[in-house]
Amino acid sequence: MAAALQQTPMTFRSRCSPSAQIQTQSTTKLSLSSTLKIPKLTIKPLQRRRGRGASGARMADDAGGSYANALAEIARSNNTLEQTAADVEKIEKIFSDELVLKFFRDPTVIDEEKHKIIDETAKSYGLLPHVSNFLNILVDNKRIDIIKNIVTEFEVLYNSSMNTELAIVTSVVPLEPQHLSQIAKEVQKLTGAKNVRIKTAIDPSLVAGFTIRYGSSGSKLIDMSVKKQLEEIAAAGLDLGDIRLAV
Q1: Over 60: is that where the pLDDT of 108 sits?
Q2: Secondary structure element (H or E) that encloses residue 198, with its range
Q3: Measuring CA to CA, which residue among 126, 234, 177 is closest to residue 21?
Q4: Is 60 helix (H, G, I), strand (E, B) or coil?
């Protein structure tokens, strides 16, 4: 893949932070047969949730949901839903690089070149055949630009089917695994979910501490950051002056 991208100013990063997961029951690890047949991809319109904002965002969500649903159906038919979800996390990491996304959005780059990069990436990251095929279909259909929407919608479908609560933990520096495990247990108590998946993010503006966002579309927030405390102090009309925080 690196050789194919020498003429383009971008890099694919292979680092994928593992998700912390708490399970009350053991899960069955599914294996992929080498003779796996890739079903035909069928895009079906979804009935969307209301109140999602501007029409442009709703259209992107609608399309993203349809493609995500199609991918989930293929994964279920092949009994590879768990592995497909892991591949979708890899895709999220790959396309989090704006230079990568820019390359695939560039109309001056022919589809053959994009297919070549996808095939090499699939081999490098060990993507399932139907996931690689799915990415190529997005290129053919000129829909690779909504890949982030597709990832988000797929996560919703996967978490719902697995009775899993997704919690996004944002901190100034990476938290230790035991701390993430403790957070997962607390979120599980709050939600009653069978499983909890932890995704991490870094935000230096928090100063110290961390936030936990969970619930439908991240609607619930636990804010234990110093930034929040400073905002509350400012809202109360107090002047910190030259006081410095020891963090």
Answers
A1: yes
A2: strand 195-202
A3: 177
A4: helix
d(CA 159, CA 162): 5
Residue 163 phi, psi (nearest 5) = 50, 50
CA dihedral 18, 22, 26, 28 (to 10 degrees): -30
Residue 141 vs residues 52, 108, 176, 193: alpha-carbon distances, Å: 24, 16, 42, 37
Per-residue model confidence as pLDDT tens digits over 122-167: 999 999 999 999 999 999 999 999 999 999 999 989 998 888 898 9
Q: For the segment 178-229, what is each residue's pLDDT rounded down to a tens digit?
A: 999 999 999 999 988 888 989 899 999 988 889 999 887 678 888 888 877 7
pTM surpassing 0.70? no
Q: What are phi and psi of 166, to 5 degrees?
A: -95, 125
Main-chain phi, psi angles of 237, to 5 degrees: 80, 15
Q: Pick the closest to residue 180 from 160, 193, 199 (CA basis).
A: 199
Nearest to 221, CA basis, from 232, 231, 230, 212: 212
| Nearest one of 196, 88, 200, 202 to 147, comparing CA atoms | 88
The tokens describing 14, both together, are 């292979």
